[in-house]
Specification:
single chain
Length: about 425
């Protein structure tokens, strides 16, 4: 009996707010959540390795900023097309099974890239086909991993769970690009894709150890159209959700495409090779980790809606300053600051979104949120074309100024974001 009471006592301590225990204690209290983070670390690191390798490969094959932008467009446009059906699948089926299938897919695509590059049979058209398939699969991986967070922690710990998940996602922006830059320089592009495939295999193993949620999967009725559009109806009925999603558009479409143009900045503007590119991207990644952790450690900041406006604008200002500096150390510092602001914005924005929806529709609402990321390729293609016409620094400067103006208009239009 005393052992039972002791077990109950330990269990009661497991649900004490993570803000009181601290982040490390929260990780120990939720083993399944910890396994989710390990898988996210592996798959997102592989994703960023793949992104850098594809960008470098596209530039080497074509020497065209427009084609680099086109590759980004082909990779991201599936998010715009398939987000809604992906959200329905995530809510209606076992999320673990959906994730296992998707992880197998990205592992295979990375392996195909490694094989084709190694055999020297990769061509620009084949890059576009492969990145489109990869992007389609990632349309499932991104939202399903985010949607699983609230089911693996207690409700009072959702905010810190989202912040920790965001911190891990952003940590991969250090690990992935750094590994890619060093790997391309030391062992080559084909081997870099092979390493990315191996990391996706590690994510697959971690995903296998996650619990099933088949019993909790949504069984809401209605016609296929009603089921498909439920997320839109939920968002349309909440002015605050509309404000959160609209605000996420400006930095996503107008500022975030700078990542796609980083190989051009590194090579043509700063005179760097693949290793230098990795260092610059790692600077961004370090900033994003610091930004996400600062939000996780600051409950008051997470609850202040106005902080989203400040951090979104700060992200645009940081990238704007980077775009016009010819100094490599200063560029790294500015990217660190931009990364900090972008991660803080995303963590606050996503936490507010997660806390505003029920679990049985979370996938569909997150799929609407993912539509903003589906607009990223539009920004990438437009920015690539503009960079081809007027130069990369001027194109990025104009885009960041447009983002700042949009954020100001959004702040004026949605008073709920200023509290």
């Amino acid at each position: 009996m005393s052992q039972l009471k002791e077990a109950e006592h330990r269990s009661s301590h497991a649900v004490v707010s993570a803000e009181e225990r601290g982040m490390m204690e929260a990780l120990r209290a939720y083993p399944a959540f910890r396994m989710l983070l390990i898988g996210t670390l592996a798959t997102n690191s592989a994703f960023w390795m793949y992104q850098v390798a594809v960008g470098w490969l596209a530039l080497e094959l074509t020497d065209s900023p427009l084609f680099v932008g086109l590759a980004g467009f082909a990779s991201g446009i599936p998010m715009l097309i398939f987000s809604l059906p992906a959200g329905v699948i995530i809510d209606r089926y076992d999320r673990r099974v959906v994730l296992l299938i998707a992880q197998c897919g990205v592992m295979l695509i990375s392996g195909v890239f490694a094989l084709m590059v190694g055999l020297d049979i990769i061509r620009p058209w084949s890059i576009l086909v492969l990145v489109a398939v990869y992007g389609t699969i990632m349309t499932f991986i991104f939202p399903v991993r985010t949607a699983m967070v609230p089911s693996l922690v207690d409700r009072q710990d959702i905010a810190i769970g989202v912040a920790l998940n965001s911190a891990v996602q952003n940590a991969t922006r250090v690990v992935g690009p750094s590994l890619a830059g060093v790997s391309i320089a030391l062992i080559g592009e084909a081997e870099t894709f092979a390493v990315a495939a191996a990391m996706q295999a590690l994510a697959l193993v971690a995903t296998w150890r996650l619990p099933s949620n088949a019993a909790e999967a949504s069984r809401q009725g209605g016609t296929r159209w009603e089921v498909l559009t439920l997320g839109f109806r939920i968002v349309a009925g909440s002015p605050f959700l509309i404000a959160l999603i609209v605000l996420s558009l400006a930095p996503t479409v107008l500022v975030m495409p700078y990542i796609n143009l980083m190989p051009i900045f590194a090579r043509d503007e700063l005179g760097l090779g693949s290793t230098g590119l990795g260092v610059l991207l790692a600077s961004t990644g370090l900033g994003t980790v610091a930004g996400a952790l600062s939000v996780a450690h600051s409950p008051g900041l997470r609850r202040r809606r106005a902080a989203q406006l400040v951090t979104a604008a700060g992200f645009a200002v940081g990238v704007l300053a980077f775009a016009v500096t010819p100094n490599v150390p200063l560029a790294a510092v500015l990217l660190f600051g931009a990364g900090w602001m972008s991660a803080a914005f995303l963590a606050i924005n996503q936490t507010a979104l997660q806390l505003s929806v029920d679990d049985d529709v979370r996938g569909r609402v997150l799929s609407i949120y993912l539509l903003t990321w589906g607009m990223l390729p539009v920004g990438q293609l437009a920015l690539g074309a503009l960079a081809d016409a007027v130069g990369t620094p001027l194109a990025m400067t104009a885009s960041c100024l447009a983002a700042i103006a949009c954020i100001a208009v959004i702040a004026w239009r949605f008073p709920s974001l200023r509290t």
